[in-house]
Amino acid sequence: MKLNDCHNVDDFRKLAKKKLPSPIFHYIDGGADDESTLKRNTDSFNKCDLVPNVLTDVSNVDTSTTVLGQKIDFPLFLSPTAMHQMYHHEGEQATARAAEKFGTFFSLSTMGTKSIEEVSNISGGPKMFQLYIHKDQGLTDNLIERCQRSGFKAMCLTVDTIVAGNRERDHRTGFTTPPKLTLESLFSFATHPEWSLRYLMGPKFKLANISHLTKKGSSIEISIMDYINSQFDTTMNWKHAEYAAKKWNGPFALKGVMSVEDAKRAIDIGATAIMISNHGGRQLDGSRAPFDQLETLVEAVGDKIEIILDGGIRRGTHVLKALALGAKACSIGKAYLYALGAGGQPGVERVLQKMKDEITRGMTLMGTRNVNELTKDKIAYR
Asked: Closest Cα to residue 107, out of 138, 84, 141, 139?
């Protein structure tokens, strides 16, 4: 199987599984506990159907939208995900350049393997930074100030990762950051020599945004769950979120909002957007799927704050359903990481092209000329 054989997200997943050592692939692919939420995130889109209009002039379909203060070419962007260098040796360089080419947001994680400054030099496209509140307030302030100096356009604060979810696949594979050989993983690394050689011969793995302030996760082998549990501030509350929003003083999203109460409080502290998300099913197993909660949150606060749907998207029609129910845009995580592992920057470009083509084709078949015409009457529940 080659990159040209990948025609949908599942194809990219299969190729990534073939090319990546087992611990690396399963870190992308897995969820928490029984992974019931992970599965439901995508299955939830099948509960309703699109209702098209016909005999409309769709000779000029405009897929663009404005979100987080920026106009993007289509209503889908790259959600923040950690440690891209583990999936491909070019790391965030590959993903940031692919996003720029397609005129959409690239989101850099606090736990990225390219620094804020490096990504700013790599890409001139719109960029969002994803913030975690660390126990060290100076580290949090440092991240915000560097983003301001580096021309990032938006920021999101992840609020659903006070402690790490129970990702049992990582326990079984012995996944750590940086990756290390274990009895469980030795065979997998040995049977993926291309990945292993590039990793060993390439730039030293580091959590580039925080390595100057902490060695954990960079030069000290530690599981991602242990890093989260030891470094993130478990006292994080609404005052921390309000402080971050004010210090940033620009388009600011809370990522991980699921309840109406929290959505309303997000408005009160000055957030301009919420990302409905359960962290890709990797945190609280048994939690609600983002798409299932979308309509409730749109009805409660959709006229007061931008709503972004994050979680489970595998098709352009999933994006159309989310927009029809009131989302301003959507974001993907696993989908583009599969593509990154499958083929680096060309892989990410290919999955973005496939998703854009599906959105454009779907809008054409729906009889909608722009995203504003994707309204609630275009959805019917079974």
From this structure: 84
Render the burial of 345-364: b for 16+ CB within 10 Å, e for the rest: bebbbbbbebbbebbbebbe
Cα–Cα distance, 359 to 346 (Å, whole number): 20
- CA pair distance 331, 347, nearest whole angstrom: 17
Q: How far is CA 240 from CA 51, 52, 243, 246, 278, in A?
A: 43, 44, 5, 10, 20
Beta strands in the chain (DSSP E): 48-50, 65-67, 70-72, 76-78, 106-109, 127-131, 154-158, 252-257, 273-276, 306-310, 329-332, 379-381
Task: Decide if 81 contacts 282 (C-beta within 8 A).
Answer: no
| Domains recognised in the chain with CATH numbers | 3-381 (3.20.20.70)
Backbone angles phi, psi at 156, to 5 degrees: -125, 145
Structural Rg of the chain based on CA atoms: 20
Catalytic pick from 89, 134, 192, 279? Answer: 279
Instruction: Quote the CA–CA distance of 231 and 162 in Å, as a whole number.
Output: 10
Is this model's pTM higher than 0.90 or not? yes
Nearest to 277 by CA among 299, 253, 248, 300: 253
How many whole angstroms separate alpha carbon 199 and alpha carbon 28? 17
φ, ψ of residue 310 in degrees (nearest 5)? -130, 115
Per-residue pLDDT 10s for the chain (382 aa) are 899 999 999 999 999 999 999 999 999 999 999 999 999 999 999 999 999 999 999 999 999 999 999 999 999 999 999 999 999 999 999 999 999 999 999 999 998 999 999 999 999 999 999 999 888 888 899 999 999 999 999 999 999 987 888 999 988 887 877 777 666 677 888 888 888 888 888 888 888 888 765 555 444 445 555 666 677 778 889 999 999 999 999 999 999 999 999 999 999 999 999 999 999 999 999 999 999 999 999 999 999 999 999 999 999 999 999 999 999 999 999 999 999 999 999 999 999 999 999 999 999 999 999 999 999 999 999 8
Closest CA relative to residue 331, chosen from 290, 367, 299: 290
**∠227-233-238 over CA atoms, to 5°?**
140
Q: Is 88 a catalytic residue?
A: no
